């Protein structure tokens, strides 16, 4: 059971818009070892911005 959690850890994606809004998701550590950056909707700013992985 512990191996499953190590391969796909839960990560937080924090908005670069400065609002502090976060998404929570999982990622495959083998395929994407560096930090993830996704363009998602920020409901506080009401527009799409980059969300960066934080640890």
UniProtKB/TrEMBL annotation:
<dbReference type="Pfam" id="PF00471">
    <property type="entry name" value="Ribosomal_L33"/>
</dbReference>
<dbReference type="InterPro" id="IPR011332">
    <property type="entry name" value="Ribosomal_zn-bd"/>
</dbReference>
<keyword id="KW-0687">Ribonucleoprotein</keyword>
<dbReference type="InterPro" id="IPR038584">
    <property type="entry name" value="Ribosomal_bL33_sf"/>
</dbReference>
<dbReference type="GO" id="GO:0005840">
    <property type="term" value="C:ribosome"/>
</dbReference>
<keyword id="KW-0689">Ribosomal protein</keyword>
<dbReference type="InterPro" id="IPR001705">
    <property type="entry name" value="Ribosomal_bL33"/>
</dbReference>
<protein>
    <recommendedName>
        <fullName>Large ribosomal subunit protein bL33</fullName>
    </recommendedName>
</protein>
<dbReference type="InterPro" id="IPR018264">
    <property type="entry name" value="Ribosomal_bL33_CS"/>
</dbReference>
<comment type="similarity">
    <text>Belongs to the bacterial ribosomal protein bL33 family.</text>
</comment>
């Amino acid at each position: 059971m512990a191996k499953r959690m190590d391969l796909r850890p839960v990560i937080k994606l924090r908005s670069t818009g400065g609002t502090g809004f976060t998404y929570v998701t999982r990622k495959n550590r083998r395929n994407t070892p560096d930090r993830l950056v996704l363009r998602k909707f920020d409901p506080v700013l009401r527009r799409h911005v980059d969300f960066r992985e934080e640890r």
